[in-house]
Structure formats: C-alpha cells, structure tokens
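ASSEMBLY PREDICTION REQUEST
Request ID: AP-0331
Submitted by: J.K., bench scientist
Number of chains: four
Total residues: 284
Priority: normal
Notes: Please return the full assembly, not individual chains.
Input sequences:
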Amino acid sequence: MEEGTLKSPSHCDSTDYGDSDPFQWDTREDCEVRQILDRVADKWSLLVIALLERRTLRFTELRNEIDGISQRMLTVTLRQLERDGLVERTVYPVVPPRVEYALTDLGCTLHETIKALVTWTEKHQDEIAAARAAYDRRMATV
Amino acid sequence: MEEGTLKSPSHCDSTDYGDSDPFQWDTREDCEVRQILDRVADKWSLLVIALLERRTLRFTELRNEIDGISQRMLTVTLRQLERDGLVERTVYPVVPPRVEYALTDLGCTLHETIKALVTWTEKHQDEIAAARAAYDRRMATV
DNA sequence: CGGCATCCGTGCCGATACTG
DNA sequence: CAGTATCGGCACGGATGCCG
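STATUS: Completed
Returned structure:
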C-alpha cells in the first residue's frame, strides 16, 4: 500500500533545493491545488471517504457511523465529493427511496493517501498528547 | 486535563488495524484521532508544514510565502503546531527580535504524509476540474 | 520584528420544518 | 428514507492598535 514514499534523508534542514524541488508549489490563494486541498482536507470529507472505502453505504448508514455530523453537513459534504468526482451517488427508484454512495476510482486513489494520514495520526497520537501536556505545563509555570 | 484520554472499550486503541480491516477506526467525536486529524487537516497547518520542510523560516518569511494568511492566523497556527510538537520555535534575544520556526522530527514524519496529499492533488487536479465541469453541466441542464 | 488583545463582521453549521 | 429550505447563534478569522 505504501508506495515507496520519497524518504527525506536529510533534507529537513537542507536549503539547497532547486526549481526541481518536488515540493516547491504555488502558495497563492487562487492556486487550484490550494482550493482542492481545502476540500480534501475537510474533516467531514476525510471521514466519509474513509468509511466508503470499506463498502458502499446508504445515507443514514453514513450519518449513523459519523458521530456528530448533522444531516445538512452530510448532504453538503456528499454533494461536494460527488461534484469533485470522488463519490458516486446511485438512486434506486423504489419506495421508500434508497440512495447509495460509493467511492469512484479517483476516490479510491485518494483514499490511499488519506489512509496514510490516519495511520500517521494513530501512530503518533501518544507523542502529540505528550507534547501538548509538556507545552501546557510550560505555559502554566509561567 | 493531561490524564490519559478515555480509551474506547472497543477497537479504537488497537494498533492492529493492518490485517483484517485496514481502516476500521473510531469515528466518535471524542476520539483522539479525530481531534488530531482536525488539527492536521487544517488548511493553514498544511501550508506551514509544507513550507518549513524546505528550511527554517522566520515569522515574516512565512507570512510572505503564504498568500492570504493574516498575522493572527499565522500566530495561532504556529502556536498550535508548536503545542502539538510538530514545530519548534526559537527566539533569538537580539534587537530587533528574531524568531525562527523549524519542523521537529515528528513534524518531518508528518510532512511525508502531507507531501503525498499534495502530490495526489497536483496529479489529479485535472480530473477533478473535469468532474466539476461535468457535474455543473448536468445540474445546469436540469 | 514579532507578537498579543480587542473589537466586530461574516459565514459556517446546527436545528427545525416541510416535501417526494 | 433522503433529502431541500430557512433561520439564527456563535465561532472563526480579519482589522486595528499597542507592547517588548
């Protein structure tokens, strides 16, 4: 799953990056990458994509799975993801209505990346908790 | 406060998510992973971490690099990242003041993941743009 | 230069009611 | 069941002013 990610051997403090820097990117607000990142990095989007990877889900199933999301936000999030071509919406013309959501192929590729993010979070949550505790202690002693 | 967060009785704290279900995680709001994800997925945090990977930067350098960020939000973002142990803040007692920000080791590991996210976005931005155009066209015809 | 405090507008988001 | 429509609170974030 983890495609041999480009390791950072020592370039954390390296200042010698050329124009070929794989991470030299446009930071302007109107940059399309930033627009998409804002969408992708959305908290609800992350959760929806994560859940849909496991299997196709109906609207209420998603709402029940995601604690704290309102019907409105789930609808909005799903519409955005559908518009971006990450999620496919299928309506079955039955009574009562049945609507299923599934990841598209594009959504599946994104899920690989998101999974890495979640995995990182799970792996390092203890370090972050410790860092927060240490920080709060430092601030308190002042 | 800093006491170990209430662990979920079920599967949340299980680090063995790799085999049977690679993406079965706790979606409850009080789940620590979700809290951290919200922070990590923040749009400004992403940009700051991305820029700091290249080299250490001063406050104003960051502000100039990140188009559209206000001084307030840069300060808030940097404080959060510092508190989470992802960014290190160094103050040089000179006049005028000089403050430098750098990624910690933990921050470097996160950057690997973020880079994957940005790379994905760059790689698929055309597909997303096409999907959006198609979606908008469908909606317009109705 | 690199903050922090304060004020205040905007828009996000939840709650509610209604439809097919 | 799966939405849309509408309203309103409040938190997020911008602008400004002051300080070490």
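REVIEWER COMMENTS: The CA atoms of residues 118 and 124 of chain B lie 10 Å apart.
SIGN-OFF: pending second reviewer
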